[in-house]
Amino acid sequence: MEISKPEFLQLYYYLLLTRAVEERVTVLYRQGRIAGGVYTSHGMEAISVGYACALQSDDIAAPFHRDMGAFLVRGITPGEIVAQYLGKRTGPTKGKDGNVHLGDLNRGIFAFVSHLADNLPVAVGAALAFKLRGESRVVVTNTGDGGTSRGDFHEALNLASVRKLPVIFFCNNNQYAYSTPLHHQMAIQDVVERAKAYAIPGEIVDGNDVAAIYLMAQSAIQRARAGGGPTFIECKTMRMHGHSEHDSAKYVPRELLEEWKKKDPILKAEQSLKQLGYVDDVELLEVRKRVEKDIEAAVEFAEQSPLPEGPETLEGVYAETLVEVLA
Amino acid sequence: MMTTAVAHEVTYLEAISEALDEEMSQDERVFLLGEDIGPYGGAFRITEGFQEKYGEWRVFDTPLSESGIVGAAIGAAMMGMRPIVEMQFADFISCAFDQITEMAAKNHYRWGAAVPMVIRAPYGGGVHGGPFHSVCPEAWFFHTPGLKLVAPSTAYDAKGLLKSAIRDNNPVLYFEHKFLYRRVKETLPPEDFFVPIGEAEIKRKGRDLSVITYGAMVHIALEAAEQLDQEGIDLEVVDLRTLSPLDRHTIVDSVGKTSKVIVLHEATKTGGIGAEISALLAEECFSSLDAPILRIAAPDTPVPYSPPLEEFFLPKARDVIAAARQLVAY
Prior knowledge:
The complex is a heterodimer.
Chain A: H1 5-30, H2 45-53, E1 60-62, H3 68-73, H4 78-85, H5 119-133, E2 139-144, H6 151-162, E3 167-173, E4 176-177, E5 180-181, H7 182-185, H8 193-196, E6 202-206, H9 210-225, E7 231-236, H10 254-261, H11 265-275, H12 281-304
Parallel strand pairs in A: 1-2, 2-3, 3-7, 6-7
Antiparallel strand pairs in A: 4-5
Helix pairs in contact in A: 1-2, 1-11, 1-12, 2-9, 4-12, 5-6
Chain B: E1 8-11, H1 12-26, E2 30-34, H2 50-58, E3 59-61, H3 66-78, E4 82-86, H4 97-111, E5 118-123, H5 138-142, E6 148-150, H6 155-167, E7 172-177, E8 185-188, E9 201-204, E10 209-213, H7 217-229, E11 235-239, E12 242-244, H8 248-258, E13 261-268, H9 273-284, E14 294-298, H10 307-313, H11 317-328
Parallel strand pairs in B: 2-3, 2-4, 4-5, 5-7, 6-7, 10-11, 10-13, 13-14
Antiparallel strand pairs in B: 1-8, 6-12, 9-11
């Protein structure tokens, strides 16, 4: 499959936007302006940008905390994200939750919980709803290498495979689960081995190659839409920052980071864009300028947004009515 | 499956089947998922014949995966379905704890995504199930904001509360007592009826003291009330029916009237729902109380298997009678 110029430029824009949003949030954190933790996808942006761009508007993304790109692609604005981090009322959770714990049913993206792999059975359930109603919609979900050790990961893969549900499982293998290296997480070299036990077709892809991820997501989505069932896609990448911004990640060998720095997904995308003859440096600069403007507007929006009032704590424990979901 | 065209006598168990059948036939979004609920009809035969009628997707046999099943129900609910999960035994709900307390209970609060889902949990002792087929796990979830908990004691309430639970826009844990399945019968009206979530019911009016209880213990309280009646002690039996959100009004009103109270439940005593009700009464009824608040509950042990042990474990009418005599002496 070939990737067209507009497709690639869209991927590139979201790669840059994701990096920029997270870098700005990290600056705000270092300035002491974010009350809670900051978890970034630095160096891993290609994964969620790639899979999210492969979805149609009525599909569902069920991401995890290294998937900022998916939120942006699904239409959560950078302003909403900064507002969420600042605990503002204009964040998608109105201050009820922080960092990347956000979602919006109307924009087809689920909020995840901190308990890793809990999002996977939920993704499978959305796929089950589509199957029950005979819809051709699909769900894409993601977890880390660490998350694949949890029971919910295995229960989700098994259920999805037994009933051939339209769900694609991504795995962001960034080699560390917080401080635990992969070889202390599992006795196998490739996470994709785990999919075999459930008879789910598995693929390994360069997790820093946004075009490869996008194309692989597209073909898995196509298969799922046609009733072919789930696919498991392991993305090999590297977590370039700590688990969160408070973590200096001294346990990661510096050489490993140096090596992966050369494989940065943004650099890689720029090289490919040029090799394909799609852009020159001037055009790349234009995209960067666009992203800078987006970020400035986002920070302004978030800073001007009000904080919630204390008694709003009590709102929303129970649902009185339903949000009308995409149907 | 039963038909409901005319008034008819049904067991508690049949009332549950009827509620499922009626709601499934009226609303295509309602579907069932659980272990062995399909051709087998469920461990207690509640969904017997359902798969023939509604097909294998709406009566969905799952792998043995409580957490996966509840997670899947949450996802389907967010996509506009109304899933009903059957826990084969309430004891196994511990495997799904995380999905219930972290995902289902917090979704709406965090990001406005409602989870209209019912989890049916066959619970309780008296059936020689031992430590893993007898538990009353409601207090674990009582402490979790965002969940609704119901626990019917009669066939009427079993049916009416289940229909309300299915139509509710929140995750509802439906505690159905296994001991009552075939022991409690009632003639139900032919028309659609609902028991609102959040409303207790006074199952027996009385003037001397209130027993606040729910589930199988309602019948223990009523049995005690009959015997005490002969001694001239008039018990009021308040059946909570809904545990969360608690009907504080009915509880406080009843105790305000009788001035004496026993809080009775089958679940173990420490940290149980009775502790919360006792605290509520101490806060809101202190000035009208004429005697200490007494709790009757199972001892703080796992549910034992051997008949003499389980007999010792479960609260009995004689415990209520002894406590009532103690209270009327004040």
